[in-house]
User: What shape does this take?
Amino acid sequence: MTEISIPFDPKNFTGGPITNEFMPLAVGNTWFYKISDGTIDTVRVTDQTIAIDGVQCTVVSDVVQQVNKNGVATKVTETTNDYFAQDKAGNVWYFGEDTKAFEAGGATTEGTWRAGEIPEGGATVAKPGVIMLADPRKGDSYFEEQAPPVAVDRAAVTSLNASADVPFGTFNKDCLQTSNTSATPGDVESKFYAPGIGSVLELDADGTRQELVSFTNSGASLVQAMASFAGQSSLDTTANPHKQEHANLADILASPHNGHST
Assistant: This one.
């Protein structure tokens, strides 16, 4: 493994759009995932920004909901605001998260941290981590989160031509794959990113599977890769870029491969 350590300097950030091909965080971009534990996850790039550790960051909303037997989204189980920024070289950095989980005993904010601040229970100031390299290469290893004891996560690039088969489409040897570990023993994930789309699949060590069902491109000037889907592109470039509807969630979750929009 090659340890990648990029010095953090707020002057290396312009506050501009996040255009990394494996993490295109244009305002309005929305990803809809189904998770094998019976929940769904909606990730949306908001038009909000926040200054953290001297850097203007993009706010990304992440909402997890339960789904009943009829495929209807019911109560929200977790909400998170994640904070990202891209440096001049094209690396995407992670500056923390404000998370709230709703449990039987009440809501908890466990896991919340911000760069430049001391996390709850910590003794040192949290540092921003790199969530996606500008030029990832097999064997690269780097810190994604540096906020002990709340979050100490690492990623390692394991493949540049991995395949993934999810409801959104089939990606044949064109995905970036990473192995992700944390300070929690046994907490290991494999993540798959498609160029022009972002995260399409996450596999946890416990067997939990998070799959991309649909992706809405806000219409920003991003070049999107074309993935194989039933012999055609898995991206429908004629679709309205501002419209994404899920009239029947049960059909979406039950279908092995289903429609999508860009």
